[in-house]
Design goal:
binds pyridoxal-5'-phosphate, 14 helices
Length: 400
């Protein structure tokens, strides 16, 4: 596997060493993926709704992609709806189910640590008259099953829980949640946001008893702006947009064909190498953690031991995370304070707050997220610069 970064087309990369450790925010597009996208952009550029041969060819490419992605979720080809990304797929799942089923009930359940595309979709539904239970999590970020059991009602329409948390890597017990939902409220639908796990950990509609699953291309070395919602056949959904009858009328609009082809290519590679990549990521994370603990005193890891292999959240007391991000950037090292969509906001991470961390601890927290592109040498370099930066910033704090 060769990554775009290795081609050296970006001048800055030749001048300064670059270590990209923000792979939960997004990933580099693989050359093989870019090549598939280029074919669609330059040659197979027909509109899949056209009746002529170029349209038929585009339709064939789209449906081949649909099959790969649907089967990767444990479903069938006709059950997958392409969207503009994970955000739209989450909105379609949450609002689509609620609005279509509002005559049956008005109650939804989610957790306090979901991605904003689920949390704010739920808040928007509250304004439309729905009621939402936001389940608490324990200190490791896992949803409390006793709270779920208590919250499930006869008229609960949907339970939406993420598989892997984007800030901590915490893996939610989705199979247990699915079992509980179907046992206690058999009519409720179960949605899983699998954006951070798809292509890295097994995703299985059957094992989870899931009715809807969200996935996104740009977290698996595919393009930004392309995602999908897998929806079990027969699950009722109201579309977010109205227009043509693409995607069975559930997501009208001419398809992002380059994105779809790139998503399928990225998924094919990720699935073929899934266990190898996961083992490699776990080794990288262990190597990194051992080196960080050896180099820097008084740190806390917020991610549980059994977290997903590509994410680790660490608190460096006495240091402002935001300042540390900028210090590391000077050395070409790219990390983040929390989720990408939150990192420009001043309020503390809702995920770490729900896990019981104080605003002061949250302010001192960084997220490191890895990809198979990273090497141990890069991590050694990162820890060396991290150690210098943390020591320097702690000295400054003590002097104040
Ligand atoms: C858990 C989770 N859900 C949803 C999304 C949104 O996906 P997209 O960026 O494709 O809109 C993200 C992106 O960071 C995510 O981490």
């Amino acid at each position: 596997m060769r990554f775009a970064a290795e081609t050296g087309t970006v001048m800055r990369r030749e001048i300064m060493r670059q270590v990209y450790l923000d792979n939960s925010a997004t990933t580099a597009v693989l050359p093989e993926v870019a090549a598939e996208m280029q074919k669609v952009l330059l040659d197979a550029y027909g509109n899949p709704s056209s009746l002529h041969t170029m349209g038929v060819e585009a339709e064939r490419i789209k449906n081949a992609a649909r099959r790969i992605l649907a089967e990767a979720c444990g479903g069938r080809e006709e059950e997958l709806i392409f969207t503009s990304g994970g955000t739209e797929a989450n909105n379609l799942a949450v609002k689509g189910v609620a609005r279509r089923l509002k005559r049956r009930g008005r109650h939804l359940i989610t957790t306090q640590v979901e991605h904003p595309s689920v949390l704010y979709a739920c808040r928007a539904l509250e304004e439309e008259g729905f009621s939402v239970t936001y389940l608490p999590v324990d200190g490791t970020g896992r949803v409390r099953l006793d709270a779920l059991e208590e919250a499930l009602q006869e008229d609960t329409l949907l339970v939406s829980v993420m598989h892997v948390n984007n800030e901590t890597g915490t893996v939610m017990p989705v199979a247990e949640i699915g079992r509980l939902v179907k046992e206690k409220a058999p009519e409720a639908l179960f949605h899983v946001d699998a954006v951070q796990s798809f292509g890295k950990l097994p995703v299985s509609a059957g094992d989870w008893q899931a009715d809807l699953i969200t996935i996104s291309a740009h977290k698996i070395h595919g393009p930004k702006g392309c995602g999908a919602l897998w929806r079990r056949a027969g699950v009722p959904l109201a579309p977010l947009f109205h227009g043509g009858d693409q995607e069975a009328g559930l997501r009208p609009g001419t398809e992002n064909m380059a994105g779809i082809a790139g998503f399928a290519a990225a998924a094919r590679l990720a699935l073929a190498e899934q266990s190898k990549r996961a083992a490699g990521l776990a080794r990288l994370k262990e190597f990194f953690l051992r080196a960080v603990f050896a180099a820097i005193p008084d740190i806390t890891v917020n991610s549980p031991k059994e977290a997903a292999p590509h994410i680790v959240s660490i608190t460096f007391p006495g240091v402002k995370g935001e300042v540390l991000v900028h210090e590391l950037t000077r050395w070409g090292i790219y990390v983040s304070t929390g989720s990408a969509c939150h990192s420009r906001r001043a309020d503390p991470s809702h995920v770490l707050l729900a896990m019981g961390r104080t605003p002061k601890e949250i302010e001192a927290t960084l997220r490191f997220s890895f990809s198979p592109l990273n090497t141990e040498a890069e991590l050694e370099y990162t820890v060396e610069k991290l150690q210098q930066a943390v020591a320097h910033l702690r000295r400054l704090t003590r002097r104040k």
